[in-house]
Specification:
Layout: E1 8-13, H1 19-31, E2 35-40, H2 44-47, H3 50-57, H4 75-81, E3 85-91, H5 93-101, H6 107-114, E4 122-126, H7 130-134, H8 136-147, E5 151-152, E6 156-159, E7 165-169, H9 173-183, E8 193-198, E9 203-206, E10 209-211, H10 218-229, E11 233-238, E12 250-253, H11 257-268, E13 273-276, E14 283-285, E15 306-308, H12 312-317, H13 320-323, E16 328-335, H14 339-350, E17 354-359, H15 360-363, E18 368-375, E19 378-386, H16 387-407
Helix pairs in contact: 1-3, 1-9, 4-6, 5-8, 10-16
The structure holds cytidine-5'-monophosphate.
């Protein structure tokens, strides 16, 4: 199922160079399954034509409150009545100023004012020159529109079309899409702090070599994203992986199991949920050489001695907050066979209320997976799906378990 299937989005464009990005945004909304109604201010039409937006949205584009094509001649009312969301991207300084004052002298501003405020959320993706962005008037207006219920997205920092550099770039279309998808997710983890480990660890042998594994980090990153979408504050402790940080997630990069343990213990006292998806190396070389270990010509391999790494999950699960389930600990088990039996045994060994089993060779590096949720009462299967879909189902399941625990 597509992320925005069945959603009706009104996409408003006010004037700004960033309008060129709105064409891509419209395409992404449509690709995600939404139907999109585009409304453009007169200024927006100086930057990009309604022809492009109509072709991409497959719907007539409106720009004037006097447009007689709307049967009752009230475009400003009709356009939002079936909408699930109004997104204004780009939202110019001028449009934000108008909204802050309830001004309504063109279709776009009229439509925002006339939308059913309790039923149709308004999301703004500002875009402007850095001086305009920093101006006290703009900042005042942004506060006011947020107080009036709009969700104001942040801005990017960097080179601007005017040649200056600073804050004020519109977020990238993919980032706005993620914000919109997240907006529709029920906030079942609001007020919770979720700590996630992801990826492999790297245990150095010398400055250029080490021991690691094939974990891609994708499952853990998907869980971090799903938890943020569900309204949680999320800290993601990531081993060495090359994945983008999900929006809104606080990421701490680590290398070895010992680094991961430090980072986790640092956050454990403020977290309510700990989800250990990382494939932590079981062993590390006793002493990593500080110089590259060279061949000595004898044909003998170097003598490497290993010591066991601390079990991060078991340690947190056995801590006072873990034992009382104030910190709800969830483990993962990557197995190659007998998933149920092995996952049940691992759950007891780690001392966690919930353990998620998956088949290692079927998940490492893949975009999809299948999960087996094992608790004290039995097991439930989440059948093969994308890692993000599975992560959302898992987060919804964990939210129910936590709230049941609170009610006990
Ligand atoms: O014992 P095993 O490595 O199979 O356990 C897997 C689970 O334990 C995963 O949740 C993993 O993140 C966690 N783990 C850990 N620290 C270790 C080893 C595993 O947190 N040293």
């Amino acid at each position: 199922m597509k992320d925005l299937a069945g959603k009706h989005i009104v996409l408003g464009l006010s004037g700004g160079v960033a309008c060129y990005k709105s064409a891509e945004l419209c395409r992404l909304f449509v690709k995600a399954g939404a139907s999109v109604q585009v409304v453009m201010s007169a200024a927006a039409q100086q930057f990009i034509t309604p022809v492009t937006m109509q072709a991409l949205s497959q719907h007539t584009v409106y720009g004037s409150q006097w447009d007689a094509r709307v049967p009752n001649n009230m475009a400003h009312i009709q356009l939002t009545r079936q909408a699930d969301l109004c997104v204004i991207a780009p939202a110019s300084a001028d449009l934000i100023a108008k909204l802050a004052h309830g001004m309504a002298d063109d279709l776009l501003s009229l439509m925002c004012l006339a939308r059913p405020i309790d039923r149709v959320p308004l999301m703004l993706a500002p875009a402007m020159n850095k001086e305009m962005w920093q101006h006290p008037a703009t900042q005042r207006n942004l506060k006011q529109v947020a107080l009036d219920g709009a969700q104001v997205l942040g801005v990017g920092c960097g080179e601007q079309a005017c040649g200056e550099s600073g804050d004020g770039r519109m977020l990238e279309p993919a980032e706005i899409l993620d914000e919109v998808i997240a907006m529709f997710v029920p906030k079942v983890l609001k007020g919770q702090h979720v700590l996630v480990t992801a990826g492999p660890t790297f245990e150095a042998i010398d400055p250029v070599r080490g021991i690691t594994n094939l974990s891609s980090g994708k499952m853990g990153f998907a869980i971090a994203r799903a938890a943020t979408e569900a309204g949680a504050t999320v800290t993601l402790v990531a081993g060495p992986v090359n994945l983008p940080t999900p929006r809104g997630v606080h990421r701490v990069d680590v290398k070895s199991a010992l680094n991961m343990l430090d980072a986790v213990e640092n956050k454990a006292s403020v977290a309510n949920v700990f989800i250990a998806t990382a494939a932590v190396a079981d062993w590390r070389p006793v002493n990593a050489s500080d110089r590259k270990i060279k061949k000595d010509g004898s044909g003998q391999p170097p003598a490497l001695a290993f010591v066991e790494n601390p079990d991060i999950l078991a340690r947190l699960a056995q801590s006072p907050r873990g034992l009382s389930q104030e910190l709800y600990c969830v483990g993962f088990a990557a197995e190659s066979h007998d998933l149920l039996v092995n996952a049940q045994a691992k759950r007891l060994r780690k001392g966690v209320p919930l353990l998620i089993g998956n088949i290692g060779p079927d998940t490492f590096g893949q975009d999809d997976n299948a999960l087996l949720l094992v608790d004290e009462t039995g097991a439930r299967e989440l059948s093969r799906d994308t890692k993000l879909s599975l992560a959302r189902k898992l987060i919804a399941d964990i939210a129910i378990r936590i709230s049941a625990g609170v009610q006990k």
